């Protein structure tokens, strides 16, 4: 339900006002998703949440950098690909706002709309910082 | 279950693989559909969970390739699609996908779907086992139905089938063949004197001698009663020579014949030999007529259809 709302919102914003996407009351990370991820254990019964978060937080900056350079080079095809990849991983960690921004980025890239891409990228960078901070908070709380 | 997790994104792949492992299954991560296929070819894979959009082959194409494989083991295929992607989900199911998961994959949902997958693959496994059992039984039944239980030679059904095969090979490849029809001499008096069990025993012994005298490409059948038929992929002279060899071997085996009149007390054979010309019925008839002549000429001899052949003449040929 919440995902639907974010998506709808995303689509509306993509056509109208592309910057501030996430509603202020929406948390950067869905805590319920992190709770689910925390229930994943290895064969000895230990939670693998740390490993999963490290994988996401380790890979995302490289994706963002790749998005920046692709946008700077005007390579909309690569922007679309990288945005698609980041949609999947951010959604897997409950970062719905981030995922919605990525979807908009991809849609803009597929339309070759470089003007829409730049502000979306700025928002995405900011959103990722919030996501990272929230994830750090959530895991501290959980630990 | 062995579960192959296919996603080009390493983070998503890791989350799914860890989730699958956490549910008690063995996860095999694959970064492309091609790598997934290698897993599937190498080992028994129960489930594939595949992303739709990937560089190289996509999830749907992977599913089609998995379905096209000629394997008895069923692979349960789960496709991961975006949550608003009903078209792809529909196309996937139509193409042989068993289940669609929505991105991002809800772990509780995944757990339920894998329980269903386990039930379905288990059912397929049991079906495949039953199928294999049935096929084995069919082969056994088909072989038993073509065997004469007393002599262990082929029965009339087997003979009819084989002769048709030999005949078509003769017509197509000009491979000659001939038949020798044997009959135990004075078999009725053997039965009358010593009982049917002794008659059966004599038949079994004669069949064993014939089998010993034949080569691999030669075939022997119980034609009916005390009549046995041998088919050889050779010209009529060689068939006649083989028949003579068998006649002598049976005589030399010295199988007791309690009901036989005259000085001889052993089982002997008469034989009618014919080249396999024309249709099956006509050359069997020719062999039968030659056998009749062998009987009327005094038994314990081989007669070739159309002309009498003296044992001496046969022995001179290799």
Spatial strand arrangement across the major sheet of chain B: 7-8-6-9-10-11
What's the total helix number of chain A? Answer: 6
Strand-residue proportion of chain A: under 5%
Elements of chain A, N to C (H/E)? HHHHHH
Output the radius of gyration of chain A: 15 Å
Strand content of chain B: 15-25%
Mean pLDDT of chain A: 83
Task: State the end-to-end distance of chain B.
Answer: 66 Å
> How many β-strand stretches of chain A?
0
What does this structure look like?
The complex is a heterodimer of chains A (143) and B (318). By secondary structure, chain A is mostly helical. Chain A contains 6 helices and no strands. Chain A has helices spanning 2-15, 31-38, 49-72, 76-92, 96-110, 114-142. In chain A, helix 3 runs antiparallel to helix 6 (114-142). The longest helix of chain A is centred in the last third of the chain and has 29 residues, at 114-142. The two termini of chain A are 29 Å apart. With 318 residues, chain B is an alpha/beta fold. Helix content of chain B is 52%, strand content 18%. Chain B has a 6-stranded mixed sheet, with helices on both faces. Chains A and B meet through helix 1, helix 2, helix 3 and helix 4 of A and helix 1 of B.
Write the layout of secondary structure elements.
The complex is a heterodimer of chains A (143) and B (318).
Chain A: H1 2-15, H2 31-38, H3 49-72, H4 76-92, H5 96-110, H6 114-142
Chain B: E1 2-6, H1 10-22, E2 26-30, H2 33-42, E3 47-51, H3 59-68, E4 76-82, H4 86-94, E5 99-103, H5 107-144, H6 156-173, E6 178-184, H7 187-194, H8 196-213, E7 219-224, E8 227-232, H9 236-253, E9 269-275, H10 280-296, E10 302-304, E11 307-308, H11 311-315
Parallel strand pairs in B: 1-2, 1-3, 3-4, 4-5, 9-10
Antiparallel strand pairs in B: 6-8, 6-9, 7-8, 10-11
Helix pairs in contact in B: 2-3, 7-8, 8-9
